[in-house]
Amino acid sequence: MSQNLSLYIVTLLKIFYRWFLRLALVIYRCLMLLAKILPNRKCSQKNGLNILVTGTFYSNHWLSTHLKPMANAKSCQRLVMVSATAVPEMNKVSGVYAPKWLQRVVGQVGARLLYFCWLAIAQRPDVLVGFHLLLNGLFVALLAKLIGAKSVYICGGGPREVVGGGIRTENRIFSRLDKADYFIEAQLLKSVNEMDLVVSMGTSAIEYFKSQGVNTKFEIVPGGFDEQIFSPKVEQDKEYDLILIGRLSEVKRVDRFLHAIQLAKKTLPNLNAVVVGDGPDRKKLEELAIYLGVADDVKFVGWQNDVHFWLQKSRCFVLTSDSEGLSQALIQAMMTGVPAITSDVGDLGDLVKDGQNGYLIKNLSSTSFASAFVSILTSKNKLVEFSINAHKNTNKFSIISVERQWNNINISSLMTNRAVAK
């Protein structure tokens, strides 16, 4: 009886939580409609744009690959990044941080967002930028309307940032939904439609938003990487057969990677791998490696800012994720001449050409990945050919190329262009 009561209470709490989020988004929508009534202040580019940015980044390198090209664009006078972690030194970029007392009161993320709001209202920058929709993009869309700024949402996670109400994201609020919620999804799509510009790493997010009736300006702008850092190295320097880079969370399915290694070792007994990254599942994955008998063959090295060092020591890059946008680590690997074996999800197919510079795995099973490991690592000619092809056509991901893309985006004209389009 008590067990049934507990299940009933848990079910009620889940229902309450879902309706609470629905109500919060309805209130948010009402605030958005009120904000749109206010007169908009036009951006002035006389001395360039002042841009205020916020987002969560898991490494300094990931942060700089996005901020550096944006800040170096001719239209940018100054870029201020509201961050919870240290912002590396970059031209025209300043890092600012919420006061310690505020972090103690509302937590690191809450403090960052509140401080972002305060700076937006107090300084009234020309452009507000949010990395990921939940919750950064939602704050950006509303604040931009309130202060008459332009809003830019950078979608790094692909459609899963919205699909099902964000249940498949790592956002601690929306991922707690007990099931997909299409009312919440619809509200999130309306918020995306309020953005003046949506920047995606690849094609899948844009295709999804357009299919759902989102009518705004879209651009595909990847991160910009230093070609001098991400460059191929000779085979003699290779130490690891496989490398996986990413946050160690459920969506990355590193468990699938470990199972595939166990299977592949039946043919390749000396197979080894390195896992670069950290996250909530690290301990569980290290225990799984022990259970599978591959702990001595898989090295977990945590977060690393010198990702290029690990890529240059590896023969093949692997992503076993259930969902991806356009992986920054995949771009880095290909620039380094490391062929890839990845899930055929999201935007990964924008870079990986099956049988040319790697393998796209459609059947997301450990057996399929293991077969691909064996195929590429037992053929020296194939490994060399795939490596050469991986490095080809990666110039568009250099810092200079991405700067050119930002130069071609006239942010201050977005509102006018959108009004005409409508």
What's the structural domain tally?
Answer: 2
Rg, Å, rounded: 22 Å
pLDDT averaged over residues:
88
Largest sheet: 7 strands, parallel
CATH class of the largest domain: Alpha Beta
**Based on CA inertia axes, which overall geometry fits?**
globular
Provide a short characterization of the protein structure.
The protein has 14 helices and 13 strands.
Describe the structure.
The protein is an alpha/beta fold. The protein folds into 2 domains: 44-224 and 400-421, Glycogen Phosphorylase B (Rossmann fold, 3-Layer(aba) Sandwich); 235-396, Glycogen Phosphorylase B (Rossmann fold), CATH 3.40.50. The protein contains 14 helices and 13 strands. The strands form 2 sheets. The protein has a 7-stranded parallel sheet. Strands 10-9-8-11-12-13 form a 6-stranded parallel sheet, sandwiched between helices. Helix 2 (60-72) links the parallel strand 1 and strand 2 (76-82). Helix 1 packs parallel to helix 4 (133-147) and helix 3 packs parallel to helix 4. 45% of the residues are buried.
